[in-house]
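hey m, so remember when u said the C-alpha cells were messed up on ur end? i reran from scratch. heres the input so u can diff it against urs
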Amino acid sequence: MTLDRRVVLITGGCSGIGAACCDSFAAQGALVIAADVRKAPTGKAGQGWTTLELDVTDPHQWRCLIEDLRGQYGRLDALVNSAGLLAEGTVEDTPLDLWRRVMAVNLNGTFFGCQAAIPLMREGGGGAIVNLSSVSGIKADAELAAYDAAKGAVRLLTKEIALFCARRGDQIRCNSVHPGIVDTPMVANFFQTAKISSEREWTQNQPIGRKITPQEVANLIVWLCSSEASFSTGAEYIIDGGTTA
C-alpha cells in the first residue's frame, strides 16, 4: 500500500485501536503522530511514532496541533479519529454531565478534528479521514444511551463530510469504521464497573464467538487510508464478527 512518508495523525493513539493503528501505519512507512490525552506508554516513542498530548474536546488545542503539523510537515495525509469513551446509562438514568462528557469526546472530538484537519489536507492535495464509530452506531442497546447516540451521530457526520469534500472536488475521503467488541483497555475497564450483561455475554453475542483484536480493526483502517481505497468515501465499514448480519 502506498503509505510511505505519508503524514498520519491518530487520536487515542496510545492505547487500544489507536495504538494498533500507530504500529500498522508506521510499519507501512508512514510518519505517525499519536495524539492522546495520556502520555505514550513506555517504549513507544522512537519506534515510528511521534507522541503528543491532545484533549480532543478542546478546539483550540486542535487548531494549535494542526498549525504545528503545517509548520513541521506542510501537509496531513490521513486523520484517524480513534479517541473514545464508553459509558453505561439508560435514557432515564444517564446524568447530564455524563451525557455531555460522552458527546464531547466521541462526537465533538471527531467534529473538531475533521474541521481542523480538512484545510491542511486540501492544501496538500487531498487525504483520508477515518472516524471510529461502533456497531452501536448501527444498532442500539438499551443501556448505552449516550454512547449509542454519539456513535450514531459520528456515522452521519462522516457521510456529511464525505459529500462536502467530494462535491467541492477536494480529494478528501471520509469513512466510518464500526467495530463490535474489541479486546481493548477501554472495554476491559468498562466491564469492571458495568451493571449490565457481562463481557463474556457480549462477546458470545458476536457469532464468530470471540473479541476482535485491535490489529484486525487497524488493518481495515490502514487500507481505508491507502490509495487502494481511492473510491471509498461516505461509507460505513462494519467489523463485528457477524453481529449485525
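this time it looks ok to me. The longest helix spans residues 96-123. if urs says something different then somethings off w ur setup not the seq
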